[in-house]
Amino acid sequence: MSDSVQPDFETHYVNQAQLHFGVYDFTIDFGRIEDPRQPGPQLAPITRIQMSPQHAKVLTLMLLKHIAAYEHQMGIIELPAALLQELHLASLQHFVSQVNLNE
What we know:
Layout: E1 16-21, E2 26-33, E3 43-51, H1 53-74, H2 81-86
C-alpha cells in the first residue's frame, strides 16, 4: 500500500466494532459510542468492511504481530478480566505473548 492517499480519503476514530461472518466473507461494522455514560448509549455507525476469510485471517495475524511489537516497546495493554470473560476471550489473551517479533 502506498503512503499517498486519495483526495476523498477519510480518517475516523472508532471505539466499537461488531463482527459477523458467513460462508464466503467476514464483515466488521465500525462505529463510535459518543458518551457511554449516558443511559442507553447509541452506536453511531461509521463504516462497514467486508473481506474474504483469508484476508480476515491475515489481518488478524498482522494485528497480533503489531500489538506484540507495541507491547514490547510501550508495555502490556491491560484489559479487565471481566471484559475478557464477557467476550469469551479469556483463554486467548496469551496469544500476543507468543508472537515472534523476529519473523
